[in-house]
Amino acid sequence: MAVTLGDVARHAGVSLATASRALNGSARSVTEELSAKVRASADALGYLPNAPAQALARSSGATIGVLLHDVADPYFGGIARGVGDAAARAGLLSLVTSTDGDPRRELEAIRMLHAHRVRAIVLAGSAYNDVSVIQELDEALAAYQEQGGRVAAITDHGPLYDTVEVANKEGAAALTRALLDLGHRRFAVITGPERMRVAEDRLDGVLEALDESGLTPVEGMLQRTEFTREGGRAAMARIVDVARESGTPLPTAVIALSDICAAGVLAELRARDIAVPEEISVAGFDDIPLATDLAPALSTVRLPLARMGEFAVRLALREGGGRDLADNSHASAEVVLRDSTAAPGVY
Amino acid sequence: MAVTLGDVARHAGVSLATASRALNGSARSVTEELSAKVRASADALGYLPNAPAQALARSSGATIGVLLHDVADPYFGGIARGVGDAAARAGLLSLVTSTDGDPRRELEAIRMLHAHRVRAIVLAGSAYNDVSVIQELDEALAAYQEQGGRVAAITDHGPLYDTVEVANKEGAAALTRALLDLGHRRFAVITGPERMRVAEDRLDGVLEALDESGLTPVEGMLQRTEFTREGGRAAMARIVDVARESGTPLPTAVIALSDICAAGVLAELRARDIAVPEEISVAGFDDIPLATDLAPALSTVRLPLARMGEFAVRLALREGGGRDLADNSHASAEVVLRDSTAAPGVY
DNA sequence: GGTGGGTGGGAAAGCGCTTGCCAGCTCCCC
DNA sequence: GGGGAGCTGGCAAGCGCTTTCCCACCCACC
């Protein structure tokens, strides 16, 4: 029913082999004359290669897999876009799987991507700190790699994979220092679940910077939650409640380690009539597109989301594939101060 | 190198055919005894089916393609998420292509998805009003359908495809009426490019509702722009400039037919020190997750983005595949009034 | 006890493509 | 002018799976 390479070959009066080489072949060359004839036949017939067949014959598909928590989340959406663009540039399509960070679904997703013989898997935020599954994940990925698959991680997922190093820790530290410079001394920090490596890295950065100034977050001023709006809102509520119950003053600065979280924080503070930044400064992380449109415009740390995705693909697809650590890409993080932060007590 | 079905068959002491039937086969049955043996061997060996090979043999892949403008855009991200979830439930993976609404890239994407023999293509916002390419797109999709492909569209893309009917027009009309009810009479409307069907539908709804009240947008008060933040900002700037130059009063209500656009509108108004909603009410469309966190919280029309994606998949995958119009799904739109709108002149 | 029908296993023919290998040709150099 | 060297075409063997036949077998029934 569909037009096959065979049809094209017959129409052009050449062999199947020649047709194949003319249209996709790389190693061997075909005279321009024949090649042109084949190409002409191909589009006269409206030939469309059969990707699965090619994948089978070459034993490597024309796709790239992306593993992430949720495409609808701006952070991951940005990465997915970058991966998709880079893939398209390489003539590949991208397979996107949203796992909500559920380890079992991640494992499942890796297996499916492997089954589809994707050329590379990009890991963007997986449950890589969850010891209960990390081994299974590693095994699944190892099996994939053994069969020629490439995997690139965005943010550290261990030394086994090429990784796009994201300056999460540095960025968080810089952000914290910026707040310290403004004069803040009472901090609250809202981070993500322990199983998320990114969250841990960012938290480390914050703690380190605080430590440099001889500070440690007081009991209750360090909250762990999911990186969601609701998570941020609830965490902020807890922070205020803890402070009020214990009679301690509110923090003057709240650092939410994800912009989405920070949006929840802002919402909660608004609901409680606590002025930002007058009473409390709030900062996020990621600089998602709408960060600047929040009320007030959110101070945050800018990450080049799409480029991170592109880097990952480039890393995974690069020639040779020798895992040369020097090749790891770096994504820098830049502090962006907007209206949600100010010096404490200036009002 | 990889474990093949043949290996499993040998290990289980059965034929290739039996192994295939035990693991995936449908038509023919295999005795439970053998079947169990095969399954045991399969996971003893860590067998992972080769999807491309299966796709080739069955001449239909285990993937679904999604065509959209930009995964990083919250509107499309939500849809992509829904498609991905529904696909996963059906044991499929989803191939996502961001085309930025460029007709040529859409055509290219359709061809690639076809080449990959995706089981269905979900059209979410394509250049379907652009006559210069609509024919080519239709041809490409027709070719795909002829070979057994299914296509489902989110929002009307013509009668040739199953479609998830989105109440764009009705929602826009309802939103407009809500503003009329508040007392607004001077409107400005910011819509998307003509080639976008959604934009046209929404605009129709607005105009129809205005017409019911005997209103028509004045010259310059109807702006067309891309559905982006910057597009919205620029359009709002033009609206203010036009009004000032012509000495007409500013509109009391601005309807931006996409939330992202509305974010730009709010930013521009803020920059010009025009108070929302005191001086101008602003409304968006889509109810993207962060709409409620904008400043002020955005009034908008809620669309069940993820469910729209799921519907599309269900439509495309349903049994038989008879294109029964009665089967078309409907996605309702609900007006959500928040702080960005108020009665005119109450301040 | 013979025959017809039903059932489950296996051999083998593809699915559409890539690619290793061989054959034929041209070209060049001694 | 003869003989490699170097190209370019074509043949055919897969890639890993599904599926059509065919066959062996078992049961039931006359």
Automatic annotation (TrEMBL), chains A, B:
Bilayer-crossing regions: none
Protein origin, superkingdom: Bacteria
Any GO MF annotation of the entry: transcription cis-regulatory region binding
Record key words, sorted: DNA-binding, Transcription, Transcription regulation
InterPro entries given in the database record: HTH_LacI, LacI/GalR-like_sensor, Lambda_DNA-bd_dom_sf, Peripla_BP_I
Pfam entry (one): LacI
UniProt keyword annotation of Glycoprotein present: no
Domain HTH lacI-type intervals: 3-58
Coiled coil: none
PROSITE patterns (alphabetical): HTH_LACI_1, HTH_LACI_2
CDD domains according to UniProt: HTH_LacI, PBP1_LacI_sugar_binding-like
Name of the protein described by the UniProt record: HTH lacI-type domain-containing protein
Source organism of this protein record: Kitasatospora cheerisanensis KCTC 2395
